[in-house]
Amino acid sequence: MADMHKANASLAVDSLPVDFFSRAPSHGGSELAQTTSSERWLSDVRATLRDSGQDFFKPSAWRYWIDFFGCLIPAYVASAVFLGATMGSWQQLLSYPVALFFLYRLGSLVHEVCHLKHGEMNAYKMAWNLLAGIIIFSPSPFFTRHHRDHHSPHYFGTTDDPEYFLSMYHRGNVLGALWLFGKMLITPLVVFLRFLLVPLIWLVRGWREWTLVHASSLSMALNPSYERKLNPADRRNIAIVEWLCWVRATQILVVIALGITDWTRLPLLYSLGFGVLCMNTLRLAGDHHGNSHGAAVSMSDHILDSCNYTGRDAMTAILFPFSIRYHALHHIFPSLPYHNLAAAHRYLVQTLDPTSPYRSLDRNGWWTVAKHTFCG
């Protein structure tokens, strides 16, 4: 019974403490006074929203569930059509972009799972992992803890930040672009093999430890230099979900071996994984301006390196589902539910002083930032 409770806790993995994200790096002497002064505007933003009299921080359970099933059902239906249709048929060609669109949105919800508070909506966390995370090889324990490093003022923008785009891509460099594309090409295979080889990984102790540190995050292939920090809870959570993913990976091969489905399902599944990865990589290119040069920055510079997209262009709408287009606001308030980001942004714009640096975070669309990220 105790083991079952631990398994349930792993699938309903808790989010990261809010205090962690708000803590700025320590400085000394006059540097402390300068940093405090430069970050006063952030304190004003936080105070303005928290004193608004509106409960922006309360998640709406029904909204989470509706968005979840509103993505899961069309994602799996479109994927089933794509995988089952005659190769090259119009049904397959039309279902592919639909499947990509909804699979990407479904996978993006892992971000919302990890930002729910401790003990909050545990049934939702478990349902997402069992019905989506395991199926698409993106269980939340492979994301939640390394996402901590992306938000951390100690690691943001450094080589220890697994999600900062310039940690995986050399800007304005053709060879860098080719290297990134090559890593993207092998990522679906690396992820599949990571889970297919779980029994072997457990048999070789040295291999097991290396895999935990280097291949237990969703950015394992795109940023192979990232080394994950682990605690006992991480090890337990990873162990449980990786065995479930092993069952999923083995099932894919077994149904082919038994002749239940054709071998062509493998390249078709690869194309779905690669397509979703392409969309996510494009989003990463627009999350931040890339102003960090590998060194830790102040919390103010951390936020000023981030974007709020207020335009209505198609690429922004496609790449930034669930109002995560307000990415800078999300980095200021990581516990702010995604469905309240737009309303909170409007309130801040209406309420803050006209000279507040918060207003400078707005951008019209994804390409205005991604162009600079890619080309410099």
Describe the structure.
This protein is mainly alpha-helical and 376 residues long. It has 18 helices and two strands. The chain has three domains: 61-133; 150-297, no CATH class; 306-376, no CATH class. 62% of the residues lie in helices and 1% in strands.
Concise overview:
The chain folds into 3 domains: 61-133; 150-297, no CATH class; 306-376, no CATH class. Helix content is 62%, strand content 1%. It contains 18 helices and 2 strands.
Computed structural class: mainly alpha
First-residue to last-residue Cα separation: 56 Å
What is the helix content? 55-70%
Q: Indicate the low-confidence ranges by residue numbers.
A: 1-10, 17-35
Lateral strand order in the biggest sheet? 1-2
- What is the beta-strand fraction? under 5%
Question: Averaging pLDDT over every residue, what do you get?
Answer: 87
Number of strands: 2
**Sheet of most strands:** 2 strands, parallel
Dominant shape: globular
Tally of alpha and pi helices: 18
- How do the helices and strands follow one another from N- to C-terminus? HHHHHHHHHHHHHHEHHHEH
Radius of gyration: 21 Å
How many domain units?
Answer: 3
Main traits of this protein?
376 residues, mainly alpha, 3 domains, two-stranded parallel sheet, 2 strands, globular, disordered N terminus
